[in-house]
Amino acid sequence: MENIALIESFSEFKDDKLIDRVTLMAILEDVFRNALKKKYGEDDNFDIIVNPDKGDLEIWRNRIVVADGEVEDDNREISLTQARKIEPDFEVGEDVSEEVKLIDLGRRAILALRQNLISKIHEHDNTNIYKQFKDLEGEIYTAEVHHIRHRAIILLDDEGNEIVLPKDRQIPSDFFRKGENVRGIIESVELKGNKPTIIMSRTSPVFLEKLFEQEIPEVFDGLITIKKVVRVPGEKAKVAVDSYDDRIDPVGACVGMKGSRIHSIVRELGNENIDVINFTNNEQLFITRALSPAKITSIKMDEEARTAEVMLKPEEVSKAIGRGGHNIRLAGQLTGYEIDVYREGVEEDVELKEFSDEIEDWVIAEFSKIGLDTAKSVLEQDVADLIRRTDLEEETVQDVFRVLRSEFE
Questions:
Q1: N- to C-terminal Cα distance for the chain?
Q2: Its biological function (predicted)?
Q3: Residues 114, 168 within the same domain
């Protein structure tokens, strides 16, 4: 059979791509009908019989017998003389079915057929992959590092699907080697052309939420609800949790004895510091909890403007702000309030920015990062401690002390 070389690959496609028999037959018929349309102008009068399991295919053209010299449409009509070459008993008006060999379509058409077949198979695969991963958006997925690039890591799952983990979706401390398994959430799936692009993320708050579901049975079972997650990937995160069962302590259940339950999550996120907070509809109390570990003296809130002025003892300010300002920023994101902190008993104090003529702005910014934004708050600190907590040289710190002391002297 002339089509054997082409047909041999049908069963290979079926086995390799795991396409069901009905789908494969439909793809094959579609490909051959397109070829027949190009060759004969139409395909309505052709029967295509496909048996992909046996690697067998037959094409039959159906025509009507007309008297010699009366053929008007070569594709749909056949002369009596030509019909009787197929079978001598044919008469005018009868239907003739004649097998079309692949070789009759021409060598170019056969090559185009194979390319079209491969294209259709890939298109089918890509559509299925797109649907599969679209359903997995927002879910945790594991894949293996296949290739490490400057801007992204290319991962492969067990089925050979390619997943991209961009640099900006990696935790800053992430370091992966080829062959290593990586966990993240499927953040987005897009069809670019006919190829699906699958993006994984390890920085999304959803990843942290899903890790809680995976590692903490009460969250998985719905006994504890995660109200909101905010994070600075690799640095700090705050998770607000609640339970409708008064017998369950949601924070205690999530953290576990001596942090045993949350430890695996912290390790997965590159030792990200995770604060688990009891959710409450009392916004003043929620802000107080969100600023933990700082202890607040009082809060003045403007619910309409969504702002809160928090009063603290001087030694609590740096705790409220946190390293790099992460604590106060995440507290604001968690509660939906813009939070400003103020020290108690500093009415006669002077803000550092008032000294901008004598102290450079970047130096003032370094002090602000660690929660020191007034003259007295700086002077209360130890010089050696300030050098350790900032990027400032001893000479610079001593100069600042000299300028600030002169103000009060």
A1: 107
A2: Participates in both transcription termination and antitermination.
A3: no
